[in-house]
Design brief:
By secondary structure, the chain is an all-alpha fold. Helix content is 74%, strand content 0%. The chain has helices at residues 2-21, 30-49, 53-72, 86-99, 103-112, 121-139. 31% of the residues are buried.
Length: 140
């Protein structure tokens, strides 16, 4: 058990470092912000799986702020599709809430998700899988 906690702590530390350093530099790019936000989403899920709600909430909140900024002031780079969207954040939040045993919020988030707006078939499949898991959890 202690080894598992240590690995979780190490993973969260590395994800936080990535989130901090990816957008760093003299000129922050949209790609750097998106990569940092994706690291934060992954950290939120990792913290939720370790049953650390405050840490999960902090990482998820950081991503929500950046996503809001993208919605208000679209950042695009020629020829590169945007990965960080409200739907991408919702996808991660379904799993995060499910791991924190907040099934009602996971299902409410799943209802608002627009899977067709997710960037890949893998993400759409993950949305279906995470939603199905939340429904199974609700039934038990």
């Amino acid at each position: 058990m202690a080894g598992s906690l240590r690995r979780t702590d190490e993973a969260l530390h590395l994800l936080d470092e990535a989130r901090t350093h990816l957008p760093a530099g003299p000129r922050t790019t949209a790609a750097g912000l998106e990569a940092a936000s994706m690291a934060a989403l992954t950290a939120a899920c990792t913290a939720a799986q370790a049953h650390r709600p405050p840490v999960a909430g902090e990482f998820a909140g950081q991503t929500e702020e950046i996503t809001y900024c993208f919605a208000v002031h679209p950042h695009t780079e020629a020829g590169r599709p945007r990965e960080l969207t409200a739907d991408q954040c919702a996808l991660y939040r379904i799993g995060t809430h499910r791991h924190l045993d907040d099934i009602d919020t996971a299902l409410a988030t799943a209802r608002r998700l627009r899977p067709a707006q997710l960037p890949t078939a893998e993400r759409r499949a993950r949305a279906a899988t995470d939603t199905a898991r939340a429904l199974l959890d609700a039934a038990t």
